[in-house]
Structures are given as structure tokens and as C-alpha cells.
Design brief:
Blueprint (H helix, E strand, L loop, with lengths): L3 H12 L1 H13 L2 H4 L6 E2 H8 L3 H13 L4 E2 L4 E3 L2 H4 L10 H6 L3 H8 L10 H6 L3 H7 L1 H12 L5 H8 L7 E5 L5 H9 L4 E6 L1 H5 L11 E5 L12 E5 L7 H14 L5 E7 L10 H14 L7 H10 L2 E8 L4 E8 L7
Parallel strand pairs: 4-5, 4-7, 5-6, 7-8
Antiparallel strand pairs: 1-3, 2-3, 8-10, 9-10
GO molecular function: O-methyltransferase activity; protein dimerization activity
GO biological process, one term: methylation
Protein name: Methyltransferase
């Protein structure tokens, strides 16, 4: 088989991709990959008993995953890992366990069912759920914590990559705006022990951060809305994958509030993926994230470097440099624009 038949099969599998995504989430929710040690042999009956589910149904789910190289299933019901299933272990480097649980979570899943609403100026998530994405997360704390865990363990290793790519040595106080559970700050402070940090996010988000994850007191938390105000007088302000959640008008408002809070000499770091207008040159995952933003927020989106430069300029910033990292995200360093003096 070749040519058109190969393309037909490939496209058929893409069309039915939602089915395999849902099965992956099913076994991730059960922690199946964690129940099998990397070099060990288990069996479906043991896994089903440990998970509290029916063995025959679990076998069927495991078989379809094995057909895609995720786990290896013997005719006697034995189960061993493959390189792909090892990536579903929660302790794997750049683990996909957290993404498997997040991408097809209930809030996102139903919003994608209403994706066509975006083509008519509506917000798919709001059509599906009758509420905004962040209000939904506030009212469904279990799913919100899955979201927080995914942001902390995004498989592009963005937090370590950002910490390694930028010199934070001159920053005594760093504010992570919309910082979630604080993973970005923890990675940075691990490399720069003289620095302190503030995680600024919704009250329900920061309240869920365990005290033992606050870097021995070097990290404090502050609840609030970045549409009202942000903490003042820090040396460095971080916006890690925040602006892509918002349309230009809202993103500009966030940036202007950062500008108002910044003291002389402070800098802003916007950490985002930069989308290429030509999809043949950009990573497919960035265009998929762009669609996720459309499904969740309507007019929110990924942006090009030129679009970020324009957005920052309109909010009163100069983009001083763009720093590539070892992950797909880049660091856009910006400073408050100096107003020309009269005379």
C-alpha cells in the first residue's frame, strides 16, 4: 500500500484522533503507567484490581493503546512498557501524563464540541458551559488543579528553559503574574538563591499552593486580578504564557497595569511561543495551542514576534530583545518606553 492509500489511512487516523486521546486520558486518570515499573511485567487483571475497574474493559482500552505503540500487551494479558507508555509516567522527564489528563478534560472537551461558534464571533467555551473559562475553573476545583499541574509540567520544559536562558542575577524581587502554582519561580529561584518572588494569581489558585512549595519562604503569594492591579516595585515582572489567553484589548490592559506598577529600572519578560505565519515552518503544536485559545476564549490567540512588538509598543513598552530558549517558548524582554523630553 502506498501513495493515496497511505494518505487515506493517515487522514482517517487523524479524523478519529479524539478517540485515542480519550482512551489515553482514561488510563492516565487511573495512573496505569505509574502502576507498572519501567522494567517490570504486570498484567491486566492486577492493574484492573488496583484501579478498581473491570478487567475486560481495561484490556480493550489497553489493546487499542498497544496498537499505537503505547504499552505492549501479550496474548496472556501481560503488560509491559514501551518508550511511549513510559512518557505517561508522572515521574518521566517532560512527562505527558499531565497533558493526557488536561487536554481532554471535561471543560476543554465540551468547548471543542462547540468550536464552530468561534467562526460566528462567539466563544466556544461560553457557548458550551454558559460561563467563562476562568470562572469555570474557579467553580470546578478538581479540574483547576489538573490545569495547574499541567501548567507546572508542560512537556516543553519551558520553566527550566526560561530559568537557564535569562540572567536573573540582578533581580532581587520577581513577580510572576498569573503564575499558577509557581513552578516558573521555583525553577528560577533554584538557580538564583539571592532572589525572592511573588506569585500573583487568582485567590483560589494561590490558596491551593502547598506551603512546602514556597521555596522556604523565599516565595510569597498574593491573590487578585491582573485586570485591577499587580504588585508594585519589583525588579522583574514575568508573564509566562498569559497574554495568549487574551484578545489584544485585554492583553494591552494587563501590560498597562504592569507598566503602572513598575519602578525605574524594572523589566518585563513576556514568555510565549512565537507563531510563524507559514505553518510549514512552525511546530504543529503551536498552531494547535492557537486553536485551543480560540476554543477557550474566542479572540485569544498565539502571536508573531511582530504582533507582540506592536502590542507592547501600544502599551508603552519597547521590546529590547527576543531570547530563544531550549523549549518552543521565547523570552521577550521589554522596558518602559522613555518619553521624549521637550526642548
Amino acid at each position: 500500500m502506498g501513495g493515496l492509500d497511505d494518505d487515506r489511512l493517515a487522514l482517517d487516523l487523524l479524523i478519529r484522533g479524539f478517540q485515542i486521546s480519550r482512551v489515553i486520558r482514561l488510563v492516565a486518570d487511573l495512573g496505569i503507567a505509574d502502576r507498572i515499573l519501567p522494567e517490570a511485567v504486570s498484567n491486566v487483571a492486577e492493574l484492573a484490581s488496583a484501579s478498581g475497574v473491570l478487567p475486560e474493559q481495561l484490556l480493550r482500552a489497553m489493546r487499542v493503546l498497544a496498537a499505537f505503540g503505547i504499552f505492549r500487551i501479550g496474548s496472556d494479558g501481560t503488560v509491559t512498557h514501551t518508550p511511549r507508555s513510559l512518557l505517561l509516567r508522572s515521574d518521566a522527564p517532560n512527562s505527558l501524563h499531565y497533558g493526557a489528563r488536561f487536554w481532554t478534560g471535561a471543560g476543554s472537551w465540551r468547548a471543542w464540541e462547540s468550536l464552530d461558534a468561534a467562526l460566528h464571533g462567539k466563544v466556544p467555551h461560553e457557548v458550551a458551559w454558559g460561563t467563562s473559562r476562568f470562572d469555570y475553573l474557579r467553580n470546578t476545583p478538581d479540574e483547576a488543579r489538573v490545569f495547574d499541574a499541567f501548567m507546572a509540567n508542560f512537556p516543553d520544559n519551558r520553566h527550566s528553559a526560561v530559568a537557564a536562558a535569562y540572567d536573573f542575577s540582578k533581580a532581587h524581587l520577581i513577580v510572576d503574574i498569573g503564575g499558577g502554582n509557581g513552578e516558573a519561580l521555583r525553577r528560577i529561584l533554584a538557580l538564583y538563591p539571592a532572589a525572592r518572588g511573588i506569585i500573583f494569581d487568582r485567590t483560589d489558585v494561590v490558596a491551593a499552593i502547598p506551603p512546602d512549595e514556597l521555596a522556604d519562604g523565599r516565595i510569597t503569594t498574593q491573590g487578585g486580578s491582573f485586570f485591577d492591579s499587580v504588585p508594585t516595585d519589583a525588579d522583574l515582572y514575568l508573564l509566562v504564557r498569559v497574554l495568549h489567553d487574551w484578545a489584544d484589548e485585554d492583553a494591552s490592559r494587563i501590560l498597562r497595569l504592569c507598566l503602572a506598577a513598575m519602578r525605574t529600572g524594572a523589566r518585563l519578560l513576556v514568555v510565549e511561543g512565537l507563531i510563524d505565519p507559514d505553518p510549514s515552518r512552525g511546530p504543529a503544536t503551536e498552531y494547535m495551542i492557537d486553536m485551543q485559545m480560540m476554543a477557550m476564549f474566542g479572540n485569544a490567540r498565539e502571536r508573531t514576534e511582530a504582533e507582540f512588538r506592536e502590542l507592547l509598543s501600544g502599551a508603552g513598552f519597547d521590546l529590547t530583545r527576543v531570547i530563544a530558549t531550549a523549549s518552543p517558548v521565547a523570552i521577550l524582554e521589554a522596558v518602559p518606553r522613555l518619553e521624549p523630553q521637550n526642548g
